[in-house]
Amino acid sequence: MRKSTFLLPIVVVLVALGLSSLFIVDEREKALVLQFGRVIDVKEEPGLAFKIPLIQEVVRYDDRILSREVGPLEVTPLDDRRLVVDAFARYRITDVRQFRQAVGAGGIATAETRLDSILRAKTREILGSVSSNDILSSDRAALMLRIRNGAIAEARDLGLEVIDVRLKRTDLPEANLNATFARMRAEREREAADEVARGNEAAQRIRAQADRTVVELVSEARREAEIVRGEADAQRNAIFAQAFGKDPEFFEFYRSLSAYEKALQGGNSSMVMSPDSEFFNYLKSPSGAAK
């Protein structure tokens, strides 16, 4: 009985020591075996592993892709139009030994603080080398790639691999919005005034062309009318001359009737003429012959 009393605590201690020497590495993580703070072994494959109890300890790190939000960052592009940029990065721990050496016991928190500094510096450097229009256009995909490539080398010193960097928001600072809107409004008003001026110029040019065309058409029509009228008068005179040549007396009679028609209209001035005047020869003659 007394012997069992002494053996039981020893068995319990041995079982505890045996259990404490075993640990399981999950497939979603990597583990470091440390002895007095120094890295003894790296466990990257999932499964059961061993360590020396009480002397060695196990530190686990996430092996999955992690995300890191980069807080609002003010940048100044080449055109001096300040922008507020929000970004995020995706990364993973690729070299846990180097990661431990770089960040020590601070772990992920310390690593993310240093990664923030790297991303902010690269974002300012890359976005400061282009204009704001490039940042706000479809070219931003190429800019994000440049920021990622620039951060990869420095992040590798931390045992990290930067997989992707994305710009979530690129806005103007609140203080600059009103001035920017006013400038944009002035530019649009100037463009509208230019369009109106060009429209008025085009309208005047078209109106002048139309007026010139009207003058040309009217002048051409009048010229053709005068030509037709002159040809008609010539044809009429030719007919009269031919008629006069065939019957002089009829021609005299026709001329007298024309004179009567023009002279004896209402509203004309009064005429005092002798009844024996030659003007009335065809009115007095029963046969119409001149006396």
From TrEMBL:
MF-aspect GO terms: peptidase activity
SUPFAM superfamilies: Band 7/SPFH domain (SSF117892)
First and last residue of the signal peptide: none
Membrane-topology descriptor: Single-pass membrane protein
Location in the cell: Membrane
Protein name: Protein HflC
Pfam families: Band_7
Keywords (A to Z) from UniProt: Hydrolase, Membrane, Protease, Transmembrane, Transmembrane helix
Gene name tied to this protein: hflC
GO BP terms: proteolysis
Annotated Band domain residues: 20-184
Function: HflC and HflK could regulate a protease.
Family membership noted in the UniProt record: Belongs to the band 7/mec-2 family. HflC subfamily.
Location (main, coarse): membrane
UniProt key word Membrane: yes
